[in-house]
Amino acid sequence: EPEVTQTPSHQVTQMGQEVILRCVPISNHLYFYWYRQILGQKVEFLVSFYNNEISEKSEIFDDQFSVERPDGSNFTLKIRSTKLEDSAMYFCASKLGNIQYFGAGTRLSVL
Amino acid sequence: KNEVEQSPQNLTAQEGEFITINCSYSVGISALHWLQQHPGGGIVSLFMLSSGKKKHGRLIATINIQEKHSSLHITASHPRDSAVYICAVIQGGGADGLTFGKGTHLIIQP
Q1: Which residue out of B32, B98, B104, B105 would a mutagenesis test of the A interface target, given it has the greatest number of A Cβ atoms within 10 Å?
Q2: Residue A58: closest CA among chain B residues belongs to which residue?
Q3: If B89 and its partner were Cys, which of A36, A72, A74, B29 is the partner (CB 3.0–4.6 Å)?
Q4: Among B33, B40, B102, beta carbon nearest to A42
Q5: Residue A89's CB: how many other CB atoms inside 10 A?
Q6: ω into B110 cis (within 30 of 0)
């Protein structure tokens, strides 16, 4: 069964460093999303992407964040200068119809 | 902004019990999702509802649009059903993101 793939599964970085989280959505899907879940809290929407541009973003998605679909398969989330409070699980999702399919997540630990 | 509330936050039950998890939201929606999150963190979509009722195996989901309320039921619960169950809503269509509840942590004891 097709699935959304995220790499790495765990990323450890120093505060102030740039990180790129990678996602390979399901191949014929048209809409792409990033969500994050801080430990013990609810999942929060960050950004959606459609037709090669950002469609919607939350107030969390500030200038430190950016997304890209550099080729036909990858969808990346970049955090320019990580802060301690960026430590969280980051989920990528994609959809074609109504159902969003989630990746297994990348756990980002900022030290 | 839609507020999504789930109850209970935590639920421990014995194997075989009938389980009900509730979700309410504050603003009209186009659809509601029930999701399952296992201890490893991965999220799986169980149901998407815009009206009425859906059934998949031992899982049943209902929604009352007028009441802004949905329920997820598990019949003949089993220890493998132990997980966090999350309600999430979407207000528009297209690329709109989901707004999530805090989840219900369910433990089914043998």
Answers
A1: B98
A2: B97
A3: B29
A4: B102
A5: 20
A6: no
